Amino acid sequence: METIAYSKMVSPSSILDTDHDKIAALCDELLEAYRTDDWTIVHSAWVRFERTLAAHIQAEETWLLPFYAVAEPAQALRRDHEALRRRLDEVGLGIELHCANDRVAREMVALLRDHARRTLYAWADRCLDPRVANALRARLDPARSRGRG
User: Fold this and answer.
1) What is the 8-class DSSP label of residue 98?
2) Which of 47, 93, 116, 143 has the most CB atoms within 10 Å of its CB?
3) Which domains occur in the chain, in start order?
C-alpha cells in the first residue's frame, strides 16, 4: 500500500482545478502541435497530454467518484470519462498512423472542457476525508506531495 506524507493539507478542489489547468495547457499545446504538420512534435505533445489526462481520470475515479456514490452528477462524470477514453483512443490511433486531423482533437478538447464544467469539487471539499486530498495530491502532483512545493 502506498504511504502518503501528510504535509500540507490541500483541498480536493484546489488539486483537481490545478490539474484541469495543466490539462487545458496541454490541450492548447496539442492543438498548436497539429499546426506544425510535424508528426514528431504532434506525437510528443500527445504523449504528455494523454498521460496527464489518463492520470487525472484515474485519480477522479479512484479517489472522488466512489465517495460520491451513485448520484447523477457522478454518473455524468463517469459517462464523460468513457467518452474521453474513446476520443483518446481515436486521436492516439490517428497520431500513430499519421492521419489524425485537428478536428477530432478539437472535438476532444471541447468534450474535455465541458467535462471540466461539471463539478463535484465543492462537494469534495466539504465531505471527503483530508487524507483523500493528500492521496489525490500524491497521484496528480507527486513532487509537491513530497514537500518540494
Assistant:
1) T
2) 116
3) 12-139 (1.20.120.520)
